[in-house]
Amino acid sequence: MPYRRLPKTDAARLKALKTVLDNNDIYTARNRFISWDVINRAQPAYDRLLTASEQYRLSYSAQLRGAGKIDKLQHNATMYVSHFLQVLMMAVERGEIKKSALSLYGLAEDASSLPNMKAAGALLKWGRLAVEGEMARVKSGGRPIYNPTIGMVNTHLDIFKDCYDKQKSLQERTAKAQDALKRIRPEVDGILLELWNQIEENFRDEPPGERLEQCRRFGVVYYYRKNEKNNE
Closest Cα to residue 185, out of 40, 88, 50? Predict the structure, then answer.
């Protein structure tokens, strides 16, 4: 025998609710067998779930579109910051810049390798230190580094930061939309359970085949177990 199972996806939840709500038989006074209390809760629950699922879809799609763009911008910013710091450290090694100046950039005086900038947060941190350090050194009379200039470094860093902040905002919006879905799902499942119980109760005395057909007409979903033949 087939068994009943509540929907597992939001699309299936919406379909199940819409099937019931669009069936005129649930509204006629003579034939109505579903309580008004459940019907009155089903429509706003459907509307809220539809709105929440659409907001999540739009937010997630925008987040995915921005992901590819931010990867390229992060690569460019990392390249400029790392190249600048490499030139700085080579200048220190050649004696053109004092070792003590490295502290202006957040680096130890005996630093011999670049800091790890693989993560976006680390890139922004070391990029900011590079810009502030170069400005402070030049302000005190030091000769600026030209290949690349700190202006070019700052430009690519700003472009990446702007995109990164927007992407974080999209991620937060997507997370909020997902939380809204998580909050409403139990309510929708509870309403569907009440609806389906009342539907099945109404057709309990019908022959098995007729009972299944009528219940499905009102949106009840049945599944057959593995290797179980459908003998309808």
Answer: 50
DSSP bridge partners of 3: 223
SS3 sequence of 22-61: CCHHHCCCCCCCCCHHHHHHHHHHHHHHHHHHHHHHHHHH
Mean per-residue pLDDT over the chain, rounded: 90
Give yes or no for a contact between 43 and 21, defined as CB atoms under 8 angstroms apart: yes
Q: List Cα–Cα distances, 72 to 75, 163, 204, in angstroms.
A: 5, 11, 62
pTM score above 0.70: yes
pLDDT tens digits, one per residue of 66-96: 888 899 999 999 999 999 999 999 999 999 9
Beta strands in the chain (DSSP E): 3-4, 222-223
Q: Report CA-CA distances (Å) from 78 to 109, 115, 204.
A: 22, 11, 68
Q: Which tokens sit at 139?
A: 């302000």
- Residue 45 pLDDT more than 60? yes
Q: From residue 11, how far is each of 43, 50, 55, 96, 205 by CA, in Å?
A: 15, 9, 14, 66, 31
Kindly state the tokens that stand for 200. Answer: 């099945």
The C-alpha atoms of residue 136 and residue 152 are separated, in whole angstroms, by 17
Instruction: Kindly state the percentage of the chain with pLDDT values over 90.
Output: 69
Contacts of 211 (CB under 8 A, 6+ apart): 200, 203, 204
